[in-house]
Structures are given as C-alpha cells and as structure tokens.
Amino acid sequence: MKFGWLVRFFDRRCLYAGLAGLLWAMAFPLFDLAVLGWMAPALLLVAALAPAGQTTFKAGWMAGLVHCLTTLYWLLWIPVTGLPILGWLLLSAYLALYPAVWCWFCRWLLPAPPAEYTQVHSLAALARWLGSPSLAGRLGWALTGAAAWAALEVLRGWLLTGFPWNWLGASQYRAIPLIQLASVTGVPGISFLMVWCSLSVLGAAVAIIRYPGGRSQWLGDAALPLLCLALVLGWGLRRASQPTHPDRIVRITLVQPSFPQTLIWDEAANTNRFNQLIRLTESALTNHPGLLVWPESSVPSLPRFDPEFTGAAITNLAARHGVWLILGADDAEPHVPPRKLDDYDLFNCSFLFSPAGEMRRAYQKQHLVAFGEYVPLVQWLPFLKWFTPPGMDFVAGRQAVPFRMDSLEAATSVLICFEDVFPGLARRAADTRADFLLNLTNNGWFRESAAQWQHAINALFRAVENGLPLVRCGNNGLTCWVDPQGRLREVFRDSAGTVYGAGFMTIEVPLEPVEPTFYRRHGDWFGWGCAGWSALGLLARRRRVGR
C-alpha cells in the first residue's frame, strides 16, 4: 500500500486520542464548554495508554496536535503569504509535544502492564492496567500526574521565549471562586487541581471495576481531591465577595478603531486612517474622561519623528481637551554603539502624553512576537525574512515603565500585545507601584475570530494574580476591563452586538491601596515546585524498575 506507513502511524489509538484532543479544545472559546477541561486529562490517558511507551507518546502527541490545530486555527487568517499555514502547523506540532510527554510520564509511573494486555481500548482493559490494590499508590500516581501537568505548563511558558496560551486552568475563567487560587499559585495551580480531580475520578472508576463490592475503594480515590476542591471554592467565594473600599475612581475612554491589518501596512492609507481615528476620538471625548487610550499600532508614523503630522495632532488633541493620553506607536533610537551611519533600533512602544500635550514617558515592548516583530536566527538563516511581514524588525525593550498621572492620582504600567498573557511580565509591571495594568493590543491580524476571546481570557488571570484591575484597549477587541477578582466587568460591543467593530467605551475603574498578593510576591513557586516533585517521582520510579 502506497500510504501504508501513514495508516500504521495513525492507528485506532491515535484516532481516539485525536477525539480527546478535540474535546479538550472545546473547553476554550468560542465553544466555552468548561466542564470538558475537567474531563480532558482522564480522556487523554484513556485514549493514549498503551503497553509501549512510544505508542503512548505518539497518541498523546496526536491529542495535543488536534487540540492546538483547533484552538489556534486563527493563525491561518494572518494576511501574509506562506506564513500562516506554516506557522500554524509548526507551532501546533511543537506544543503537542507537551501533552505527549505528559502521557508518557503518567504511563511510566504505572506498574508494568499485565502480559495479556494488548491493544484493547475498553475501560475494563484499562482497569487491568491501572488497577492497584494500594490506595496510596493510586493517590500518589494521581498527584504526581497533576504535578507533571502543572510543571509542563510552566515550562511551556518559559522555554524558547515561552507561549503560556490556553493553559488548562484558563478554561475556568468564568468560575470566579475557583480562579482566586491564581492569586496564590498562578494558573498552574488551577490546572493542577483540575488534573488531580480528573485522574482521581479515573482511579475511582478503575477501583469500581476491579473491586465492585468495595465502596471504600473508590471513595478513597475521590475524597481527598474533592475535599481540596471544596476548600478552594469556599475560600475563593469568600475572597471574591469581600467588599471593596476604593478611594479613587479613574474615568477612562477606550477607543477601538477596528483597522484591518492590511490597512495598517498600507502607507498610502496612513493619512486617512489617522484622520478616522481622530474623528472617532473627538466623538469619544464628549464623555469627558480623565484618561484617553488608543490601542497598539494606532498611530501610523513615529510621533517623536513626525512633529508636523501625528506629533502635532496628538499634542493638540491632549491639550485642547485637557486629557491624559496613552497610545501605541513605533519609535526609534540610535543603536549603541552605531554600526553604520543613521543606524537606528526600532521599537514597538506606548507613549504617555500629559493634558498639556507633553510626552512624559515611553515604554518599549519587552516580549516580541517571533516572525511577527523579529526573525529569530536571521543572522545565520537570512532566508527566514521571506516569511516575515514587511518592516517587522523590532528590538526588545528591557524594563517595565510606570506611567504616573499626577492630576488623576493614579499610575499604570503598560503591557503591549500578548505581553499580558505572560505572568512574569505582568508581575514586573505591577511592581512599578501601578494602580492598574493597561494592555494595548492589535488583534486585527486575526480578523473576527476566537483569538480575541482567547487572548482576553488568558490575560484576565493577570488581574487575579496581582490583585489589580486590568484595562484592555484593542484594535478590534476585546476592549474591556477586568476587576482584581477576574470578573469581566465591561466589554465593548459595536452596534451589531459584536466585539470586533469600531467605536469607543468609557469606563470608571475604582482604585484602592492593596497589599501584594502571595503570587505577586513569590511568582511561579508552585509550578516550579511541581517540576521538582515530578522529577523526584520519575527518579523514584526508575529506582523501583532498576531493582
């Protein structure tokens, strides 16, 4: 058979694993079936476990691949020839390695399979594989499997510059009492609890099959994680319902121009685009805010180097209305040391303008998008520039910059684009003594897709982790604000009821002095602790096998 190798690779187990990956993907927007997030780890193992470790790894990779291809479909909508499908496939194939490693790890922790276990996929056969007369053994397996999942999430958010997108715990963004746990452990703590419960229920099902007459067998598996879940929910409900005592309210107008990405790249359209933004803003300022915000890439030129066009217009707008203005635009600085004449570094920036029209501060984006804002390894592989959008050759900034607005008695720190999905960056931004976090983003790359919703629900946890409001201003969504408990308080919608159109929204954000959360003080202690726990579990299993 010409494609016999393909049939052998994508066997029946891979088919089941792919289905599990699809159900896992449906836990995230736009399906938002959060309950599937609790079921996904167990379903994944039921589909992937096999006598051979390489078979388990392959099935886990297939589940991860289907999950990523489904949730990241919006990468195909980037208006660049060649890049979307290649990036979609390569990124999905890479991210799929993490669930593959997790499935292999969970299989490695189990006792050796019975000799009669072959390729049967029934739960009864799985019970012969998983079943252990030792309750402590099953509990240890479930806990270590949950720790491995949390560890791999933290690793994925750090390795190769990181991609902390759609961690399992993020699927529970609507469960406000549950997500308060992020203020202590970060999102990996929520993922840990979900995986622990999922594997414990699987262990209970196995116990029922193997020991149908012993109720205590399955109660023992489920009791401890369910008790912990109940305690977390009770604590989270209390935390989320505590009364607030704001001492200031900042009135902010967020402008969402909804420019198509192809228009942003069209230099001939710069004047019309900027004039359209000014007209929209003039209408928005009838609400008399204290702070006006434009999104990332809203200004078509470099304001500091274009005083006659955008520079003067921005200065006059702020001064005429007596409003603080924060906007997203590019900026340039001479390269140090200079490599050639007129050698400049280009930055993706946000700027703060005072009510007098003076530019007060500038923040340079620290975490750039590979192949969107810079080309990795381009010094050695120059052909990679062909896969990058035109003019995208930015340099990364080095630090968070506080934007202090004296007359408003408020300070913010800006996160640009998908910087608000990185917990570490948000922690550093919060440590500038910010009263609220502000995200400027341009999701016009992905048209009207799930990208805007996924971005917002991943960013939402930065508010919980740091105990600060998060305000988001997007080019075509999601323009919104999130309170310190992670509730989406107000979301901009256009006249058609969608989040993607042009318009503006004025919000009133209450500010109060707060103590830094445990997570803000200590960071990803839980996730890296889980990594150490998983390593010890692997070593202990290896010692048992070696005896």
Task: Describe the 3D structure.
The protein is an alpha/beta fold. The chain has 2 domains: 4-241 and 525-546; 249-511, Nitrilase/N-carbamoyl-D-aminoacid amidohydrolase. 46% of the residues lie in helices and 14% in strands. It contains 19 helices and 12 strands. The strands form 2 sheets. It has a 6-stranded mixed β-sheet. Strands 6-7-8-9-10-11 form a 6-stranded mixed β-sheet, with helices on one face. It is globular. The two termini are 44 Å apart. Residues 114-121 have low confidence and may be disordered.
CATH class of the largest domain: Alpha Beta
Reported by name, the CATH topology of the largest domain is: Nitrilase/N-carbamoyl-D-aminoacid amidohydrolase
Shape: globular
| Percentage beta strand | 5-15%
**Spans of at least 5 consecutive residues with low confidence:** 114-121
Broad structural category: alpha/beta
Number of strands: 12
Please state the second-level CATH architecture of the largest domain: 4-Layer Sandwich
- Going by CATH, the homologous superfamily of the largest domain would be Carbon-nitrogen hydrolase
Helix amount: 40-55%
Span of the ends, CA to CA:
44 Å
Oligomeric status: single chain
Indicate how many domains the architecture comprises: 2
Mean pLDDT: 90
DSSP summary: helix tally: 19
Strand order of the largest sheet: 5-4-3-2-1-12
Taking Cα atoms only, what radius of gyration do you get, to the nearest Å?
25 Å
> Major β-sheet, in short?
6 strands, mixed
Topology diagram in text:
Blueprint: H1 4-9, H2 12-25, H3 35-48, H4 53-71, H5 83-95, H6 97-109, H7 123-130, H8 135-156, H9 176-179, H10 182-185, H11 187-210, H12 215-240, E1 248-256, H13 261-264, H14 270-284, E2 291-293, H15 307-321, E3 324-334, E4 344-353, E5 359-364, E6 402-405, E7 410-416, H16 423-430, E8 436-441, H17 451-466, E9 470-474, E10 480-482, E11 488-491, E12 503-511, H18 518-522, H19 525-546
Helix pairs in contact: 2-3, 2-4, 3-4, 3-11, 4-5, 4-6, 6-8, 7-11, 8-11, 8-19, 11-12, 16-17
